[in-house]
Amino acid sequence: MSDLPVVKVDEMIDAEGAIVVSCFPTVSMVSNIVAHFLVEHLDLQFVGGVRDARLPAVCLVQDGEPLPPIRIYAGEPNCTIEGCNQLIVILSDIQVHGRLALPLTEALFTWSKEVNIGSGILIDAFAHGVESPHELVDDDDSDETLLGIGATQEARDKLIELGVPLLKHGVVGGMTGVMMGEGRRRGIYLSAILAEANPTFPDARAAARIIEKLDLLFPSMKLDPGPLLEEAARIEEQIKAMLSHQISASEEGGEEGNNILYG
Fold this sequence. Notes:
Blueprint lengths: L5 E4 L9 E5 L6 H12 L3 E7 L8 E3 L2 E3 L2 E6 L11 E6 L5 H17 L4 E8 L7 E3 L9 E5 L2 H9 L8 E3 L1 H13 L3 E7 L7 H11 L10 H20 L19
Parallel strand pairs: 2-7, 2-8, 8-12
Antiparallel strand pairs: 1-3, 3-6, 4-5, 6-7, 9-11, 10-12
Helix pairs in contact: 1-5, 1-6, 2-4, 5-6
């Protein structure tokens, strides 16, 4: 596929066998909260990002440093997946629109193959009864559901081992839908964990349920649910502040607002 986004990662990073946690925002910013928590709690380092003319013309500024809206972080926590000695987090602060989803998926998978990534987990969320990129059949009446999708049997078995029930029926949209479909076609060890979330605000509690499952993959995290929720709530406030100042940009790169500064 031509005209792919450019994925640039520090060549000094040994990504062979790494597990990649991809966090693209949809319902309730759950994936963003998970990503920010992992980056902060595991002291992951910024190692790269994605460039493409179809992305909104914005950058994130942290401590005076400009960063791309789709960023890549890396670190070396202990992992329970055989051969995994590196964690890579893809953190997006923007929603990826339909026409860019497939080219971006292609670019990420091409990079993953080149550096011999071991496996991947997509973090997402869904809500009942509201407009959502996902239409899932959830047999659980509670509002604390986790559902999983595996591109391979090995990935599905791992989700069951983690205590994440598999999604039986549904339509999954956005980057998660495209990446899972392509992952199945290519036989990639790829899974997705989706949390049922409150659609009215960034849901830190839904994010906490996902992080507790990720804790089973990374024993070094040693997460206690109490402090976890407190920390997630703090990150939730950061996300709310970021959202309140976010620039509205169209897929076609329409008119932009004034530069946004916040401290």
